[in-house]
């Protein structure tokens, strides 16, 4: 493992925590159009940072996780993801949102965001707890 890996891991974890906090703030906004755009942006950021963090965690464990699905599977197997169903929906919604934008799809995603926020927040807690307990990433 290179010297940059622990630093990158910490940076990604801090990024994910910050993005999840911002997603929560966006979900609390009352001005609908701005809140929706902001929430969707932060969902996408949380998705990207979380799968890259899990990819790095997998690499530290000697597991190759080149895709978001493989990275989330690693997170589940490593005990970092508690809600498998939420992450399956996150993957499906993210794939749908990236390939085709429709107002109805955005609305469906917005309705799922509180549950997705909880799933991402749980991931931050799991990884942080393992790190603070002195355990190495998987």
Overall description:
The protein is an all-alpha fold and 138 residues long. It has one domain: Up-down Bundle (Four Helix Bundle (Hemerythrin (Met), subunit A)), CATH 1.20.120. 80% of the residues lie in helices and 0% in strands. It is built from five helices and no strands. It has helices spanning 4-28, 32-60, 68-77, 84-99, 103-132. The longest helix has 30 residues, at 103-132. It starts with a helix and ends in a 6-residue tail after the last helix. The mean pLDDT is 87.
Q: How many extended strands?
A: 0
In angstroms, what is the radius of gyration?
15 Å
So, CATH architecture?
Up-down Bundle
- CATH fold description: Four Helix Bundle (Hemerythrin (Met), subunit A)
Question: What would you give as the CATH superfamily?
Answer: Nucleotidyltransferases  domain 2
Return the string of H and E elements: HHHHH
The class by helix and strand makeup works out as: mainly alpha
Mean pLDDT: 87
Could you say how many structural domains there are in total? 1
Low-confidence stretches: none
Shape: globular
Q: What gap, in angstroms, lies between the N and C termini?
A: 13 Å
The biggest sheet amounts to: none
Number of helices: 5
| Share in β-strands | under 5%
Helix content: over 70%
By CATH reckoning, the class would read Mainly Alpha
Topology:
Elements (H helix, E strand, L loop, with lengths): L3 H25 L3 H29 L7 H10 L6 H16 L3 H30 L6
Helix pairs in contact: 1-2, 1-5, 2-3, 2-5, 3-4, 4-5
Q: Which key phrases capture this entry?
A:
80% helix; 138 residues; Four Helix Bundle (Hemerythrin (Met), subunit A); globular; single chain; mainly alpha
